[in-house]
């Protein structure tokens, strides 16, 4: 039996599920693939994932199949991955913009270690 893969970023409205049959497997989105995409692509993908999650939640209330209920967790993880990549890209752009400046915003502290960050917080006035 061959399992066909259904990627979560495929548009559910344009897909032909009859062609897939009952043997399809949900594949989580790979983060390294997300990092290569642009900001607009990520936002479009986020909208599609949220629509799919809303459809799955409606199916859950209506007593849908078990395979749909098990996809909810994967969808939530995929949304979290997309949001994480978006925020990482925004923070990287901010770091690049402030790399040559003398003063940094308070939400861009250096990574360092936890023990070193504690006295830094006192120094910064927290």
Summarize the structure.
With about 130 residues, the protein is mainly alpha-helical.
Topology record:
Elements: E1 4-7, H1 17-20, E2 24-27, H2 31-34, H3 39-61, H4 66-97, H5 114-124
Parallel strand pairs: 1-2
Helix pairs in contact: 3-4
Q: Quickly give the structural class.
A: mainly alpha
Order of adjacent strands in the largest pleated sheet:
1-2
H/E series:
EHEHHHH
Number of distinct beta strands = 2
- Please state the average pLDDT score: 79
Whole-angstrom Rg: 20 Å
Dominant shape: elongated
Low-confidence stretches: 20-24
Count of separate DSSP helical elements: 5
Distance between the termini: 60 Å
Q: How many independent structural domains?
A: 1
Percent range for β-strand residues: 5-15%
Largest sheet: 2 strands, parallel
Binned, the helix content reads 55-70%
Structure in words:
The chain is mainly alpha-helical and 126 residues long. The protein has one domain. The chain is 59% helix and 6% strand. The protein contains 5 helices and 2 strands; from the N terminus they run βαβαααα. The chain has a two-stranded parallel ribbon. Helix 1 links the parallel strand 1 (4-7) and strand 2. The longest helix is centred in the middle third of the chain and has 32 residues, at 66-97. The N and C termini lie far apart (60 Å). Mean pLDDT is 79; it is low at 20-24. InterPro entries: Ribosomal_uL29, Ribosomal_uL29_euk, Ribosomal_uL29_sf. Keywords: Ribonucleoprotein, Ribosomal protein. Pfam families: Ribosomal_L29.
